[in-house]
């Protein structure tokens, strides 16, 4: 009888593992093949051999690019080189990248930049906030941008017990920002188990010098984050769930869910078009190829546009308010 119980439990566990592995492969779009698309107005920007993890564009057309991220389980093309922040002027006919100098008081040797976000103060000073992973930890670095010198002055390192496995950031005030946590665990084996079991324990947090709090949770892997043009809505990408969450921002910085839009692809970073409010998303069509990197058969990437998320969010919110009235 005891052996039968053990065998039954073992069978149930193996069945659960098998079901989870199949579901994980499905979430990764493991069978998806990428069809190359030739875009006549696009050309390769040289000088970013170590990749570009995130891009943030100023109204002036200057673009900041974070490069050289070392991330658990991902291919690494610059194991012994620190990360960098590049600048590119999109106003130029043939834009080129330039590595920005960083002030000497900052530990550049351990610089491992991830998501970035800019903030322009009332006096037009530009600040760049960078998610950093020095020594496998998570911090947020605040820099002042000096345009004439093409340099970054390090001002502050922000740490907190809730700033763990930080992926991306969107800054909405001098020292107020939302940040995403993409994994609950920090051990690589546990991260893999977390993804396979689809635990959905990650979150979005709000940070200010006076208050730090979780404002949205229940994500499988909260990734890219940005804000609508009117700053009334926050958009969050849940990469393995293949969707974008629309969240309403309140005066106390809390967030409430409004809408979830499925994209059918693994959504990474987000950006809002400054003219139309459309959401542009950088996506992974086949994440399994990303995990099991093969230079002869690269994973590829794609860009998706969601032009009606903001308007749909407002319509849904209006419908809910009218219904409850």
Automatic annotation (TrEMBL):
UniProt catalytic activity: an N-acyl-L-homoserine lactone + H2O = an N-acyl-L-homoserine + H(+); a phenyl acetate + H2O = a phenol + acetate + H(+)
Region of interest (Disordered), residue spans: 299-325
Keywords, sorted A to Z: Calcium, Disulfide bond, Glycoprotein, Hydrolase, Metal-binding, Signal
Entries under InterPro entries matching the protein: 6-blade_b-propeller_TolB-like (IPR011042), Arylesterase (IPR002640), Serum_paraoxonase/arylesterase (IPR051288)
Highest taxon, organism lineage: Eukaryota
Positions of Ca(2+) 2 binding: 54
A Pfam family reported for this protein in Swiss-Prot or TrEMBL: Arylesterase
Residue ranges with Low complexity bias: 301-311
UniProt binding sites for Ca(2+) 1: 53, 116, 167-168, 223, 268-269
Cofactor: Ca(2+)
Annotated cofactor note: Binds 2 calcium ions per subunit.
Family: Belongs to the paraoxonase family.
Function comment: Capable of hydrolyzing lactones and a number of aromatic carboxylic acid esters.
The protein, known as: Paraoxonase
Upper taxonomic lineage: Eukaryota, Metazoa, Chordata, Craniata, Vertebrata
Gene encoding the protein: PON3
């Amino acid at each position: 009888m005891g052996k039968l119980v053990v065998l039954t439990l073992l069978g149930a566990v193996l069945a659960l593992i098998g079901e989870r592995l199949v579901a994980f492969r499905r979430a990764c779009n493991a069978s998806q093949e990428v069809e190359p698309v030739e875009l006549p107005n696009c050309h390769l920007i040289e000088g970013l051999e170590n990749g570009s993890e995130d891009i943030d564009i100023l109204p002036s057309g200057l673009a900041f690019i974070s490069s050289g991220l070392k991330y658990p389980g991902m291919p690494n093309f610059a194991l012994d080189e620190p990360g960098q922040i590049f600048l590119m002027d999109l106003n130029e006919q043939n834009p080129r990248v330039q590595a920005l100098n960083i002030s000497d008081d900052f530990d550049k040797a351990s610089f491992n930049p991830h998501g970035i976000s800019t903030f322009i103060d009332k006096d037009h000073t530009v600040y760049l906030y960078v998610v950093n992973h020095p020594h496998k930890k998570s911090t947020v670095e605040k820099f002042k941008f000096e345009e004439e010198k093409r340099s970054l002055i390090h001002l502050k390192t922000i740490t907190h017990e809730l700033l763990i496995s930080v992926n991306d950031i969107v800054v909405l005030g001098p020292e107020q920002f939302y940040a995403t946590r993409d994994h609950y665990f920090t051990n690589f084996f546990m991260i893999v188990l977390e993804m396979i079991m689809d635990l959905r324990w990650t979150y979005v947090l709000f940070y200010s010098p006076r208050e730090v709090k979780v404002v949205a949770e229940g994500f499988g892997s909260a990734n890219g984050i940005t804000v609508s043009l009117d700053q009334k809505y926050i958009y969050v990408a849940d990469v393995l769930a293949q969707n974008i969450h629309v969240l309403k921002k309140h005066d106390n910085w809390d967030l409430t869910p409004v809408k979830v839009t499925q994209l059918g692809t693994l959504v990474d970073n987000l950006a809002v078009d400054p003219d139309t409010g459309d959401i542009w998303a950088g996506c992974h069509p086949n994440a399994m190829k990303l995990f099991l990197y093969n230079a002869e058969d690269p994973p590829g990437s794609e860009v998706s546009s969601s032009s009606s998320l903001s308007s749909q969010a407002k319509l849904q919110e209006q419908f809910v308010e009218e219904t409850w009235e």
